[in-house]
Amino acid sequence: xxxxxxxxxxxxxxxxxxGEPIAGERDVLDLIGDAGYQGARWVVVPAARLDExxxxxxxxxxxxxxxxxxQYDIGLVVLGDIARHTEASPALRDFVRECNRGRHTWFxxxxxxxxxxxxxx
Length: 121
Description:
The protein is an alpha/beta fold. The chain has one domain: Transcription Regulator spoIIAA (2-Layer Sandwich), CATH 3.30.750. The protein contains 5 helices and 5 strands, in the order E-E-H-E-H-E-H-H-E-H. Strands 1-2-3-4-5 form a 5-stranded mixed sheet, with helices on both faces.
């Protein structure tokens, strides 16, 4: 079950690690709707919940998902170890690095890193 948490005074919608894979626009719009309804500024998605196509940039799934979050002005955090994906794809590694420099999409390894990033805003 997903729930709303407050981390460093920031409302964050945290998705349950169990559940259906998040594979495309419809799944993301449902998440954004739920998060927005609860007043969240960020949505945390466990990396394991993302469909494998997300990590293959040529599919454009990652770009489409990130763009939806930007359109609705809700931040996206992909939380967890994605090393096997970034090691296999220099393009994904670059995408992750660029996202982490921004203010809308972050790829973070754990809850501690999330608290640090939200505390620095």
